[in-house]
Amino acid sequence: MNRYFAARPRAEAPLRLFCFHHAGAGAMAFAGWAARVGPHVSVVPVRLPGRENRLGEPRITDVELLFRELDEHLGPMLDQGPYAFYGHSLGALVAYRFAEHRISSGQRVPTGVVVGACMAPHLANPLITSAGLGDAQLLKLLSGLGGIPDELLARPVWLREMLATTRADLTLGRALRDGARTPLSCPIWAFAGAQDRVATPAAVAEWERWTTSFFEFRTLAGGHFFVRDGELPQLLGEMLPAPAVLAAVD
Asked: Are 204 and 217 within 8 A, CB to CB?
């Protein structure tokens, strides 16, 4: 199987939802989503290099390299039928910029882009500018957001690896944000955690200016990592286009 994918797309599902994880995380951020979104959506978690079973691969911090990799490994599947992107925090910037890249290069346009726990690109983002922090400071910041599982704190070697991955991801995130230029021609759905102290609901709602199409914003219970809860995938299953709609526009 393609090393970028943590699960094979289901051929019988009319819509494929490619999911991009937050900084320092991997495809396991979307564990359990496939059972919650409904039969018309195939959840395809995308695993960037430098984590999980790709731990030995160099982490990507260059935007153009990221696009080349995604074009090579995701591109053929994106041309096969309707698809959408979901991105959480850093992943929201990956989803938006890759959709922008696809549209500007004349490739198949996504049905929609869903962003979660990420302030709009035109706003100052204290999280993605923290890549230069030392390990202790970065750990304190992430712990304050609820992003460090207790079992990881008990394993210093794993913790150092996670911090190194997070730092590389934040470097990529800043480059993605700084290169944002063009509103998308496809819909954007934006989700914020009601208790998120970084990507506040007001900051996430600002994504409205990054689409010339339909926009919808919702606030969910929880903080920055509501991606781990069951409410979001269920909502996406209800909101993303139904099979009859997809058949009409494909």
From this structure: yes
